[in-house]
Structure formats: C-alpha cells, structure tokens
Amino acid sequence: MAEFLTDIKTLRERARQEIGKGPVTDAYGADLQRVLQVLNEALATELICVLRYKRHYYTATGLYSEPVAAEFLQHAQEEQAHADKLAQRIAQLGGEPDFNPDTLTSRSHTPYDASLDLLEMLKEDLVAERVAVASYTEIIQWLGDNDPTTRRVFEELLAQEEEHADDLRTLLERIPADRPLT
C-alpha cells in the first residue's frame, strides 16, 4: 500500500489551522490570484458568448435561419452553463465571480457581435469558438498539475467549445455561398 507523503496527524493539523480556506490547502500548487483572474476572464468570455448567441438567435432571418437559430439558442444555453461552472469554481477557491457589465467586453477573450447577416453571424461565432478553443487549451497547459480541478473544468468546457466550432463549421458548409439568404 502506498504511503502518504505527509503523515495523517500533520494533514489533520494543517486542515484545522486554515479552515477558512475551504478546498485550498498547502497542496494547492498554482498561483491562486492568477487562477482567479484567468477564471474571471473565462467567465467574461462565456457571458459575452451567451449575449452574442442570444442576439444572433433573436435576429437571425432568412431562408436558412430556422436551423441556424436553433443552434444559436442551444449554444447560448450551453455557454450559460459554462459561465455557471466557472462562477462556481471561482467561489470554491474563495474568489468573487465578476459579473460587472461595465468590464465584460474588456475582460472577454472573444468579442461581442451584432451582425444581421446570417452568414456573418455564423462566421463570427465560429471565430469566437476558435478563440475559446485556443485560449482554453493554453489555460489547461498552463494549469498542468498545479490545479487539477480547475484544469478539469476547462477540459470540459474545451470539449464543448470544440463541438460548437464543429457545429458552426458544418452549418457554414451547408449554406450555399452563392444563394441569397432571404
């Protein structure tokens, strides 16, 4: 049987000494303040994505808009779930989820988009998903083994962002570029 690196008595004493830190113990290997900042940037990214997808859902019109709008709505709901996971992790780590609308766009990795053209909506959403894929991949690599729980949160989000990018690419391929969309 494998031995603990620290004896049980010492683990128990440490757990009592800093009980107010919740799950953050001496074994936590990451820079907590930087992790909280990165989590809040990702939270802003997800919230901007929710707003962008909702805007596109409500303003999509034209011949191909029905299936595309349905995809926008599904993505908006999934991005909201991502935001909730991130906010929960921030709170678990003793931080404060930053929902300040005045700074959302400056903290977000992806921009907001108010396109009215269906093809442009798809393109802008695909670009945003690709940005999320790239940034979440970098975050996962940066976290490494220093915060495995936060890394797993980002791995879950990354898998769904990749799925979103694939969905949008497929929709873009199905809409003939030479046909009018209305």
TrEMBL record:
Residues 29-179 form the Ferritin-like diiron domain. One of its GO terms (molecular function) is ferric iron binding. InterPro entries: Dps-like, Ferritin-like, Ferritin-like_diiron, Ferritin-like_SF, Ferritin_DPS_dom. Its cofactor is heme b. One of its GO terms (biological process) is intracellular iron ion homeostasis. Keywords: Iron, Iron storage, Metal-binding. It comes from the Bacteria. Coiled coil: none annotated. Fe cation binds at E46, H82, E129, E161, H164. GO terms for cellular component: cytosol. PANTHER family: BACTERIOFERRITIN, DNA PROTECTION DURING STARVATION PROTEIN. This is Bacterioferritin. The lineage of its organism: Bacteria, Bacillati, Actinomycetota, Actinomycetes, Kitasatosporales.
